[in-house]
Specification:
The protein is 63% helix and 0% strand. It is built from 16 helices and no strands. It has helices at residues 23-31, 35-42, 48-59, 68-76, 82-100, 110-133, 138-150, 155-168, 173-183, 191-204, 214-224, 232-244, 255-270, 274-284, 299-316, 321-325.
């Protein structure tokens, strides 16, 4: 049964630090609330998708328990730089979403919405200043796509913010994924708008770019919304997208690559082609990534079940493409 993050993943199984550059150092810093050391590591990250993944992982670190110490530590470490201020804002966004929960709007109380919007308004004030003073700072623009959605500023405003970011770098997969969330029906958009955005991003994606894979997010969102049958044409489209992105020789691996592989594994499992799914389970290796598996009530159990099924299916065709690739 699909849900929206009702159950937290088992920390030992889905390790959010595993695929981050210097993830062990970042984990150690966050475990001791040593935000200054974490910021020093972040300053060494050169790829935008790696930096965004690391920032959100730090901001999410205390989810599910009292995060006041982490929030205070991040605030205390704010040295006025765009990086530190953006991390502080992201922590506020995370606090807000935890207060709201990831349930559909009809299941969120007025009190939860009040807390949610209060945290997001605090984040938005910080991000507004960062973007005004440092208009080329991509992480702040990416975060403002999320605050626009959460504050209900509308598809037009969210798209304006995405366009500002895309003018700086049109290949930021994290920004494409959060913008897609705004234009799906559950956040006020439509499937037509979502499909058009996916097509637009794919058309702009270069060889090896993860932008080709936004179609996977779209397919999974449609499944969550109740479309349990994946059309063969969609399977073919996703296969092509994988060839153009993670399997393309021009692809440069980042933290986002692991999430892309885990979502591809989920898609092919849903589509009933487990041998294809195995290619992506194998690519993730021994460090599972939650990704969209969090839509299940028991994501770890479902991941294990589908991974085992995929391994068996691939073994049956060991002499064919799936077995050779795995």
């Amino acid at each position: 049964m699909a849900t929206t993050h009702d159950a937290a993943p088992t920390a030992e199984f889905f390790d959010p630090w595993a695929h981050l550059p210097d993830g062990a150092a970042l984990r150690a810093a966050c475990e001791t609330d040593d935000v200054a050391s974490a910021l020093a590591v972040l300053r060494g990250l050169t790829r935008t998708d790696d930096l965004l993944a690391a920032l959100w992982t730090i901001a999410d670190h205390a989810v599910g328990r009292d995060g006041s110490r982490l929030t205070e530590a991040i605030s205390a470490a704010d040295d006025g730089t765009p990086l530190a201020r953006t991390l502080r804002a992201l922590r506020y966004v995370t606090e807000g979403w935890e207060a709201r929960s990831h349930a559909r709007a009809q299941f969120v109380s007025a009190g939860q919405f009040e807390q949610f919007h209060d945290w997001l308004r605090r984040a938005e004030r910080i991000l507004f200043d960062v973007c005004a003073q440092h208009p080329g700072y991509l992480p702040a623009w990416e975060a403002r796509i999320t605050t626009s959605r959460g504050l209900g500023l509308g598809i037009g405003e969210t798209r304006r913010r995405y366009d500002r970011l895309a003018a700086l770098d049109p290949q930021v997969f994290a920004a494409q994924r959060v913008c897609l969330q705004q234009v799906v029906p559950k956040w006020g958009g439509s499937w037509e708008q979502a499909s058009a955005f996916v097509t637009e991003c794919a058309a702009q994606a270069g060889p090896g770019s993860l932008g080709h894979l936004l179609v996977v997010d779209l397919a999974i969102e449609r499944w969550v919304d109740g479309e349990k049958t994946v059309p063969p044409a969609m399977v073919d489209r996703v296969r092509q997208a994988a060839t153009q992105s993670v399997w393309d020789p021009h692809h440069t691996a980042s933290a986002a690559t692991a999430t892309a592989h885990t979502n591809l594994a989920m898609f092919f499992s849903l589509a009933g082609v487990p041998a294809d799914a195995w290619l992506h389970f194998a690519a993730v290796g021994q460090a599972p990534v939650e990704g969209a598996w969090g839509y299940y009530n028991a994501p770890e159990q479902m991941y294990r079940t589908q991974r085992d099924a995929a391994a068996k299916a691939a073994a049956k065709v060991a002499g064919g493409p799936a077995g050779a690739r795995a």
